[in-house]
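Sample entry was shown:
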Amino acid sequence: MRKVFCLEDLEEAARRFLPPAIFSYVVSPAESGATLTDNRAVFDEIRFLPRVLRNVAGRSIATRLLGQDYAAPFGIAPMGVSALTAYRGDRVLAESAARANIPMVMSGSSLTRMEEVARAAPGSWFQAYLPPTPERIAALVDRAARAGFGTLVVTVDVAVRGSTEHYERAGFSSPLQPDRRLLWGGITHPRWALGSFARTLLGSGLPHFENSDNDKRIAIVARNVVREFSGRAHLDWTAMRRIREQWKGKLVLKGVLHPDDAVTARDEGMDAVVLSNHGGRQLDGSVSPMRVLPAVRAAVGPGYPLLIDSGFRRGTDVLKALALGADFVLVGRPFNYAATVGGAAGVAHAAGLLARETEMALGMLGVNRLGELSPALLMLRPETFITTPPGA
């Protein structure tokens, strides 16, 4: 990690560490990658207008979200099969986040039982991919509550399965097929093969998807993997109303882009929404969350919690989002890479880098508290941002 000076350095380090098929699963976008590209390009269209001589000696990036105090305005986004890229990846991410006093959202497509992570890092959040029937949804929600999670994040931008062409071309498939190509990838990447995959097999056996349902375990090589993670095309707001009635903790909707959907989520009792295009992995050509953030903030009003993800890599990215109206940022792939190449120390290093960048940029903006950030500190191209709700 001595050669990792920013989050962007972690991607190349993970590329060298992981077999091509496994790395491709993490890094791959949908189809042509237009959305993935725009998730980064949008930040170049925003410039700061800093203030000077503001006495920023007492600045702080601490923040409060959903009733909890955090050390920084960012957390770790949910990422599936993290335990395939990093040994005990879900626990590493959760425990490291707890030590850094930032939230970690455990993925519903994880390979570690939610109960284990909740015990190891009680402040973690759980992200659910909804099963296809009301009975199975209720059972999964009840399981998350019994495990001790206080915040449930429901991802809603996966009504149908997205494009898989990129990582399939590289040799990754779902279900995972241990063929010659994957075997050769392991042989040529012994640190991953011995330090992550072999340790997992010896310690707990063949990885399973542990949290897709109430208590069902689905082997990562099982033929019915795709079927078990499908069947959501018919889901609508009725499912969310049932979950809201059942779930007593904080309920967050992830995968919202349209201002009208954010307003509906607010009116249906969701405690917050995450503006997200799934890191460019679902609908290619969908808008960057940053481009609709001002309009969503205008639509839901000043007090409703808005989180955002997709493409964040720098502390300046975080501050641009907060200045445009977000309350909190979730960062995904870089933390996966950090756990992959450095374990808990890698995640701590990544969180420290992003926190230092955020705190440093805050001072150079002439701001002491995150609540002082506003669009008045930014310059952007109005024609590429939606600043008012449709029809307003």
Residues 31 and 165 are 7 Å apart (CA to CA). DSSP finds 16 helices and 14 strands in the chain.
